[in-house]
């Protein structure tokens, strides 16, 4: 770690002193911004921390936070840091079992509850034994409301001043392969990573950020919240799903991060407005008109002022990145994990020749490959351990302190990294051959009718691809969609090894959601859940067919 370490608490105090009257947080309420200056945020942080002291909580206590993104999420997070508490964020979409597990496993002594879409369904997971503190939104019953906390006890004017090796937070993984694990992250690791983001993206006080991806996920906590701490820039939030586009257009972010599924949805909305993919491509090919169309698209998305776009959390189809590049929007793909503060590798500055890779390691991050091709990383951003899981911690690191990511990779001559699959995703077919599903899924994803794809095949003669259709495709004639998917399958199979060729595409009829446990809170597919649900029904499918689930 560096000798220039400064915690988020130090940065808050700096900005409150040097630009205290400038707007920091912008919370939309019924279509209008409720703004908080840096000084107002500092005062609220001191008061919330004082209220926690008044309630008997002491430094080192763990306190959970269950809410969608909002200004008070930032204020609460800073208050927990200010008072020396350990934050335990929980995804706002988490189900009862996950909420209960995280609270019990972490040993949280209180929980802040805030903006939630379905809080009555989640309340049993919180239970009645833990003290509830409510953010100022329609949320589950709590012993203390936000306004009460802002007037409870005396403000704590002197922060704890957390040290580098002090534990800042327990970040629970999204649980794509089982129970979530709690990654123990220190102030030093978080600070180092946030500073690396600000350094690499050249963020400063003139930038405008939008926070809408879950703050319980480390990516948003570093890339958006952390950038604001260390660059001193303003952050706006999204009021609801219905106001999303309007909220983006109003803030006009200069830096904007999203996930593959949303980039796909944006593309679909653009094409739907024009009428068809072919018509859009024709318009874009006409010199002056093409420039005007691109400009209108940028403005319509609210990204006409964006100088940097990013994608992470899951693989994004190269064809989608190429498409955005063709309309003048360059999406920098990045790679990271909960265990390394979500930032280790990035394709930035954007290199169109390296679309399909996740870029090169950032300064300060070392990578290597295991003999099996697994990506191993080492940097100051690595977690200390998995909470209360010494065996899992020991298994996660090699003898030199490199973290075993579980991702399979290839590295080209220029140092650009491509993720080729997951170690645990590879499955063995009935022929005794191992198949890596992720590269196959990325090839099939070139078909615009497919929104989500999961290739499975444990014990089958050949892999089968499960496909969830894009919203627009679900409204098209079935035979038209079938023909397109069949053409895609026929174009992909000749380029696969014989044992990995896909026997059939099965279009699922029930959407994959967080609620039915197919998707994690970060929208990753739980492959093991789909394997269990479908594998017995797929044996016997042959001949490069495309069938709907109700046709089986």
Automatic annotation (TrEMBL):
Signal peptide: none annotated. InterPro entries: AMP-binding_CS, AMP-dep_synth/lig_dom, ANL_N_sf. It comes from the Bacteria. Keywords: ATP-binding, Nucleotide-binding. Residues 14-387 form the AMP-dependent synthetase/ligase domain. The keyword Hydrolase does not apply. This is AMP-binding protein. It comes from Shewanella electrica.
């Amino acid at each position: 770690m560096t000798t220039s370490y400064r915690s988020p608490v130090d940065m808050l105090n700096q900005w409150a002193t040097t630009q205290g009257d400038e707007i920091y947080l912008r919370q939309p309420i019924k279509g209008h911004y409720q703004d908080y200056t840096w000084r107002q945020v500092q005062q609220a942080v001191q008061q919330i921390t004082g209220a926690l002291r008044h309630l008997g909580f002491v430094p080192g206590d763990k306190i959970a936070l269950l809410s969608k993104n909002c200004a008070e999420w930032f204020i609460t997070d800073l208050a927990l840091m200010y008072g020396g508490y350990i934050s335990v964020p929980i995804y706002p979409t988490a189900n009862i079992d996950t909420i209960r597990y995280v609270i019990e496993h972490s040993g949280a002594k209180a929980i802040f509850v805030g903006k939630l879409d379905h809080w009555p369904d989640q309340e049993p997971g919180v239970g009645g034994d833990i003290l509830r503190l409510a953010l100022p939104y329609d949320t589950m019953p709590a012993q203390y409301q936000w306004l009460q906390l802002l007037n409870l006890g005396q403000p704590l004017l002197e922060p704890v001043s957390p040290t580098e090796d002090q534990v800042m937070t327990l970040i629970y993984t999204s649980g794509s392969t089982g129970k979530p694990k709690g990654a123990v992250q220190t102030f030093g690791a978080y600070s180092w990573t946030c500073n690396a983001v600000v350094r690499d993206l050249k963020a400063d006080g003139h930038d405008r950020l939008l926070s809408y991806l879950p703050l319980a996920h480390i990516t948003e906590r570093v890339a958006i919240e952390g950038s604001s701490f260390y660059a001193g820039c303003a952050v706006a939030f999204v009021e609801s799903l219905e106001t999303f586009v309007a909220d983006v257009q109003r803030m006009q972010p200069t830096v904007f991060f999203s996930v593959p599924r949303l980039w796909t949805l944006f593309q679909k909305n653009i094409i739907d407005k024009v009428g068809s993919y072919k018509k859009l491509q024709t318009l874009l090919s006409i010199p002056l008109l093409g420039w005007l169309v691109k400009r209108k698209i940028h403005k319509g998305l609210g990204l006409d002022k964006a100088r940097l776009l990013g994608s992470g959390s899951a693989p994004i189809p190269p064809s989608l990145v190429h498409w955005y590049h063709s309309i003048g929007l360059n999406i920098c793909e990045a790679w990271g994990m909960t265990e390394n503060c979500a930032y280790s590798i990035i394709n930035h500055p954007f290199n169109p020749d390296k679309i399909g890779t996740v870029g090169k390691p950032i300064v300060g991050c070392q990578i290597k490959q295991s003999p099996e091709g697994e990506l191993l990383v080492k940097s100051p951003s690595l977690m200390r351990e998995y909470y209360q899981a010494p065996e899992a911690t020991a298994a996660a690191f090699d003898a030199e302190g490199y973290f075993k990511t579980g991702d399979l990779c290839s590295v080209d001559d220029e140092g650009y990294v491509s993720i080729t699959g997951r170690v645990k995703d590879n499955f063995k077919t009935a022929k005794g051959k191992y198949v890596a599903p992720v590269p196959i899924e990325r090839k099939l994803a070139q078909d615009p009718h497919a929104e989500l794809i999961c290739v499975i095949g444990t014990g089958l003669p050949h892999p089968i691809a499960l496909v969830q259709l894009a919203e627009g495709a679900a409204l098209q004639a079935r035979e038209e969609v079938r023909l397109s998917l069949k053409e895609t399958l026929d174009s992909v199979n000749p380029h696969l090894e014989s044992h990995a060729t896909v026997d059939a595409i099965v279009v699922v009829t029930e959407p994959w959601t967080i609620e039915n446990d197919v998707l994690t809170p970060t929208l990753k597919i739980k492959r093991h859940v789909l394997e269990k649900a479908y594998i017995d029904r797929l044996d016997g499918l042959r001949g490069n067919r495309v069938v709907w689930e109700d046709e089986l």
